[in-house]
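so the lab meeting is tmrw and i was supposed to have these ready like two days ago... anyway. pasting both below. for each one the top line is the aa sequence and the line under it is the structure tokens. i havent really looked at them closely yet so no promises
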Amino acid sequence: MSKLVILCVDDEEIVLRSLNTQLKEAFGNTYEYEMAQDADEALELIAELNKEGIKIIIIVSDWLMPGMKGDEFFIKVHQQFPETIKILLTGQADESAIQRAKEEANIHCCLYKPWSENDLLEIIKSSLDKL
């Protein structure tokens, strides 16, 4: 059986590196970790992994990115993969965008930048319990 994937999407490389490090330290080799720098790259990666039969179980995505915003991205993902757990990570999302993501993409939660590593890991652990 292939490993399960946690996907992180953010246009800032330093954020992706930080998320990758925190997740690997917390969960080790239990999961595979994929990174994308915008929503379009993430959608391509999701399609590619899905074609290979690899399941993405959690997506952590920024809201403010070039091109597609995080709420729009999560709505697209939710239409194809409603079971994927979606966590919005933002420093700039407005309340209407967060509400839209909750209503139309069923996001698990919204975590604000700068995030606490403990909060991030607790949110991910609680979402894993729902699988």
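ok protien two:
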Amino acid sequence: MKSLQYHFFRVIMKLSKATYDWGAPIEKQRALVEKNAGFIKAPEELTVDRTAVGGVAGEWLRMPGADEDRVLLHFHGGGYSMCSCITHRGMVARLAGACGVRAFLPEYRLAPENPFPAPVEDALAAYRGLLQEGISPQDIIISGDSAGGGLAAVTLISLRDGGEPLPSLAILFSPWTDLALTGESLTTRAKADPWLVRRATEIQAARYCGDNDPRNPLISPLYADLRGLPPILIQVGEDEIVLSDSTRLAARAREAGVDVSLDIWPGMWHVWQCLAPKMPEASRAIEAAGRYVQSAMVTQAGRSNTIAQ
């Protein structure tokens, strides 16, 4: 049974969907999304340190009791053209808290001013910066939502292809993995999705891809060879127009031998986790991701101890 808050937010988003101007100037859209982000406050107990890692500006986010030796590296969504630490600080802080680790939230360069491959370069620089600061790869969890989920997957692929050490696991919230826009859910979920529309994905894909082929695996990880990647948790809403981006990625990952967990949440929309703690379903999703991470860490620690013996 869905909460009252769920029904409230669903109505609000449907009203916004009917009036939102996806063709508005990008500066106007960025200002609006940052203004709306003020509705969800970051936890009062959160400690925020503005800094740079690997030359990429961002924020260290620490909840009380965080394990300083382990790091959540999260890439925010926003179609590669919007959002920032301001819009994602609360969700990432709560996710890090559920995982029991500290988080680094980088502000990678955005399109259309900085299209592909600029965000990929920044993502890799941030990850390598963590290694340079002495964080072990097995103590890094890479995560992302929407476009940031796709960017997290691309980062894993790039690291593997370069023979670099991979993080321990990945968490992807509603990842955007197919900028060629071939998923059937763009049509089959068009009426069910209370927020996203196909036109939004077309505009954002054009901003990011430029003249590049959207099927480039470093743009759309759905088309990549996924062998050798670490365990992946995918959370996606049943009502999203980009649902197929998650289901197809999970299927391809399994075929490649990757340990992947696909959680499709009934009645949910794109990155509903951002509404924690105001919507119980959002909080439960973040808590579930935290349990996944903590369980994986215990399992990995056990394997390490066995190997050491």
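from a quick look at the 2nd one: The first helix runs from residue 4 to 19. Strands lie at 47-53, 56-62, 67-75, 101-106, 140-145, 169-173, 232-237, 260-265. will dig more after coffe
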